[in-house]
Amino acid sequence: MKKTAFEKSIDPASQTLLQKAENEGIETAWDRYEQQLPQCSFGQLGVCCRNCNMGPCRIDPFGEGTEKGVCGATADIIVARNLLRMIAAGAAAHSDHARDAVLTFKKMSEGEAGSYKIKDEAKLFSLASEYGIPAEGKSREEVAVELANAMLLEFGKQNGPVLCTKRAPGVRLRLWSELGIEPRGIDREIVECMHRTHIGVDNNATHILLQGLRTGISDGWGGSMIATDVQDILFGTPEPKKSTVNLGVLSLEKVNLIVHGHEPILSEMIVEAAENPELLELAKEKGASGINVVGICCTGNETLMRHGTPIAGNFLQQELAVITGAVEAMVVDVQCIMPSLGGLTGCYHTKFISTSPKADFPGTVRMEFHEEKAYETAKEIVRAAVENFPNRNREKVSIPEEKQECMAGFSVEAILNALGGSPDPLIEAIAGGAVKGIGAVVGCNNVKVQHNYGHVNLVKELIKNNVLVVTTGCNAIACAEAGLLVPEAAVLAGEGLKGICEALGIPPVLHMGSCVDISRILVLASAIANRMGVDISDLPAAGAAPEWMSEKAVSIGVYVVSSGIYTVLGTIPPVLGSQEVTALLTKGLDSVVGASFAVEPDPFKAAKMMLEHIDKKRKALGLK
Ligand code: XCC
Ligand code: SF4
C-alpha cells in the first residue's frame, strides 16, 4: 500500500511538497523505500556476512537451516562483527571531520589559510592549558600551532588515553581503564575494528563488542569532542540566538543557496561570501532582492548556532527543498547527502555543487574547497548560485508557508551562563523535583517511520513530565519545526520545568548543536556529575534516538551508553539475529558500564521508559 503524504511526515510543509512531488511524477526516498519492500530479512537481523570471498554467507535465524558461515562463524559472531564495522564507520566519519577541522586550524595558525581567524581566544588558551601547552611569552598563533599539533597527535597516538577522556568523572575513567576500554588513539581504534572483523581474527561476540565500546568512546570523547572544540575556536562558541526553520525559509524573491552536510569549514565561508557587496549587487542585476543562505542537516545546525542562519529542514527534507523549485544551488560537503540529489536537481534548475575532495555524487558541478583559497572558492560558489537565479522556472515554484521561530546556540558555556555561572541552580532544581531529570534526544530521520513523529512526540512527553531536554542533529531541527525551541514552548512543559524556563527565559528544549556537538552533552553531564560527586550513570538522565539511521548514530549510541546513559532507540538495529548480542546490548551492558540500550518505536512508550529510568535514578540518589 502506498503511503499518503500525511502518513509519510507529520510536518505540513513536507506534506505539501510530497504532494507536489507526486503530482509532478518526482521520486523521493519514500518511493524508493517502497520499491525496496520487503527488505532483506537476513540484513535486518544482521546475519549476513561478506567479509571474505568464500561468502556471502547467511545464517538461518530460525535455526532450521544453516547455522554457520563457511569459516564456521555463528550468528553471534557475524552480528557482532557487522555491528563493530558500523561503529567503526560512524566513529571514522566524526573523527575524520575533526581531523580536517584541526588541519584547517593548523593552516590558519601558520598563516596559510587567511580566510579563517581565531574567533574564541579564551577557548584557545583554556584548551592549550588543558593540553599542557604553556602560553607565556608566545603569540596566540604560536600557541595555536602547538595546540593544533597536539590535537593531531590524538589521532595517531598509540598509547592512550585519548586526552579529552579526562573530562569524564574520575570514577568513569577508572571504570573504562579497568575494563580495558580506554581509547588509545582515535585512528588506532578504528583500524583495529577493521582488523578484528577480517576473516579469522576476533570471533567472540562479547570481546568484539568491548572494542566497539572503546571505539565509540574514542569518537564521543575524542573525535567529536575535538571537532567541537576546534570549531569553537575558529568560528566562535555558540550563544543563544533566534532564527527560523522549515521549508518556508526559502525565499521567493531572493537567490536561495542551501548548505547541506556537516563541516562548518565550508558553510561558514559561504555565509560570509553571501554578504559580499559585489555579489549582492550581482544578485540585484539578476533580478533577485538578495541572497538567502539556509542550511540542511548538521552544517545547518552549525551556522544556525553561530549566526542564526535559517534551516530549511532535516535529513528527509533535503529532496523536498529541491522540489520547491526555488533552490538555485544545493552546496554539499560530506555525510547524509543523498546521491539521489543529482537526478532530482536535474528536474529543476538547481545547481548541485559538491565541494569536498572526499565526496562526489552523480550530477554535480565540482567546486573543490581548499582552506588556502576558502573565501575565493566560497565567492565562486555564491556567484554560481546568483547567476542561476534567472533560470528559475516560476511555474514550477511552490514554497510552503510554514516557517517557525526557534532559539538555538546552547553551548555548555551558554547554558552555564544562563544559570548564572555554575550548574548549581539546575542541580537544585533537579534535587527539589521541579526538574525531574535530563533527556538527551538526538539523531536522524528514517523513512521506516513517519518523518518527525517520533522526535516531536517523545520530546513533548518528556517536557510535559518535567524533563529538561537537550537536543542536537536532526532531532533539534524536528523540535524547532514543531515550535519546541522557543521560550514560549514552556507552556507545554510540566509546572516545575515551566517555572524554571520562565525564570531563565529559555526554551524547555535546548538546541546544543550538530551531531559532533553531542560531545557538549557529555561535557555538561560530566559537569553536573562532578558537582554532585557522582558518576554519569547515577544521574537522573536518559538518552534517545527516535528515528536514527546512520552509522554515526550507532557510534553515538555506543559512546552515550558507555558514558553511563541509558538510551532508547526508536528504529531497530540489525542485531536481532543474535540472542547473545541482543542480550548484551539490552541487559549485559548494565553490569559493565552501568547503562544499556532499549528499543521502542512508539515514542509515548519510549518516553515512559525514560521516565521510569529517571525515577529509578532519583530514588537511588535519595531524591523524591
Ligand atoms: Fe545525518 Fe547530522 Fe543523522 Fe541528521 S542526525 S541524519 S547523521 S545530519 Ni547527525
Ligand atoms: Fe562467510 Fe566466514 Fe567469509 Fe563471513 S568471513 S563471508 S561467514 S566464510
Automatic annotation (TrEMBL):
Catalytic reaction equation(s): CO + 2 oxidized [2Fe-2S]-[ferredoxin] + H2O = 2 reduced [2Fe-2S]-[ferredoxin] + CO2 + 2 H(+)
UniProt entry keywords in alphabetical sequence: 4Fe-4S, Iron, Iron-sulfur, Metal-binding, Nickel, Oxidoreductase
Binding site for [Ni-4Fe-4S] cluster: 262, 298, 336, 444, 474, 515
Binding site for [4Fe-4S] cluster 2: 49, 52, 57, 71
Range of residues in the leader sequence: none
GO terms for biological process, alphabetical: generation of precursor metabolites and energy; response to hydrogen peroxide
Cofactor(s) the protein requires to work: [4Fe-4S] cluster; [Ni-4Fe-5S] cluster
EC number(s) from the headed UniProt entry: 1.2.7.4
Binding of [4Fe-4S] cluster 1, residues: 40, 48
MF annotations from Gene Ontology: 4 iron, 4 sulfur cluster binding; anaerobic carbon-monoxide dehydrogenase activity; hydroxylamine reductase activity; nickel cation binding; peroxidase activity
Gene3D superfamilies, alphabetized: 1.20.1270.30, 3.40.50.2030
TM ranges: none
Keyword Methyltransferase: no
Entry keyword annotation includes Iron-sulfur: yes
Highest taxon above the source species: Archaea
Alphabetized Pfam families for the sequence: Prismane
Function according to Swiss-Prot or TrEMBL: CODH oxidizes carbon monoxide coupled, via CooF, to the reduction of a hydrogen cation by a hydrogenase (possibly CooH).
Subunit structure: Homodimer.
Family: Belongs to the Ni-containing carbon monoxide dehydrogenase family.
Protein name, UniProt field: Carbon monoxide dehydrogenase
Species of origin: Methanosarcina lacustris Z-7289
Taxonomic placement: Archaea, Methanobacteriati, Methanobacteriota, Stenosarchaea group, Methanomicrobia
